[in-house]
Amino acid sequence: MKRKEPSSKEKHIVYMNSAGFCAFPTCSKKLVEKANSKDDAAVLGELAHIVADKRQGPRGGDVLSEEDRAKHPNLILLCTEHHTIIDTQHRTYSVAVLRQMKADHENRVNQALSKAVPVPPIPLVNEKIQSTVLPITALPQAVFSAPCAFGESEYDQVKSRVQHPKRIKENDPYILTPFVLKDGRLFAFQDLSQPNPFSAVIDSNKTRHHRATEMWADQDWKKVYVNLLNRSLYKYAGGLQVRYDPEHKRFYFPVLEEGVERSVVYKSPNRAEQPRQVAWEPKFKHDGSGKGFWYHLAAGIRFHQIDDLQWCLSIRPERHLTKDGTVPLPSDKIGRKVTKLKARMYNDKYFTEIVFWRDFLSKGMPRFSFDYGNQKTVVDIQLITFDVEWAGIPGDEKLFKNEIYEDDLFTLSERSDSLSGEELEWEEWEDEAVSDTATAF
Ligand SMILES: [Zn+2]
Fold it and tell me: Domain boundaries in the chain?
């Protein structure tokens, strides 16, 4: 009978299933001897046949076919010593004993190595995510429209004819009168069928009533509604001497007197009034001379609908730049001064500025509102937070433990959609611009 040599693949299967150790139960000798300074590594193991490849060999009388004698189930990995023992004492080490020995060894290998290595559990950290948005707690539930003698291009004509409600008492709120012209009609939050600021330019008898929730459901009508909100904000901000720059779609602090830097006093809830520089010419450190351009605090402030009924107001701090406090800096001169915000998730300067805007707009009150007479828009100043439980980064405890708001521990999560457009490189201005905030709170 011709001896059949096991293929390389069959041999590999046995080496692998045995993990390189002698299968003899009391041995567990590793069958690779490491190299030393004089010699290469050595293979000490041997593949032994359970049923010999030849009839006259150890256990060779078994019925196993010649073909199967060269297959991996019939091969067992042993050290030289145990190979000799099983072939010499082949009546003790019968086919059944050796098959069991092989199975036991391969099971041991599996049990030791196939389990996933236990990984220490990742510590979860409870945190509040601080958003950059303020919740809107009340909105006009109705919009009114009436035919208007002026077309969409005649906004200024209408504006000059609006009769602003007079304040009777000193503490009466200013009534805001935003309006939109569309399709030959004037849209406003005031009930146009009643005495109203627009009576000089509309036909009050043909007033229509539009439900806010229905307007929000349609993109075109939603635009009308958001325009009314935006115009409320322009008017409200105007009352605080903050101007809207339509080119860059942002609010900014203009100077009040040509060439004179501007500061405002603002108040955070439960804190004393603070001064804050809002328009200034940065100076060279070495001689205090001006750098030839001006910074103005600015912010993109926008209304967003976040679900069927909930709206919010987002604040995105920016900078407005001018040549001299008044004339906008040509965009090719802005260059590096205003660039995209670098990825700075945890920038307390950014947050400080959001807090400044909301406290300035709310005049230190817990909320601020746009009053239309019978309806109003109310913005709460509690920045929306989210409770999250997530994998903490060991040792990462920096975040916002600044001295500003001890009662608000927060991380700042920037919404990618609020980061489009011009932003600034904070390092550029922070030493000069906000040196006052370190002591401001
Ligand atoms: Zn052995």
Answer: 8-113, 129-439
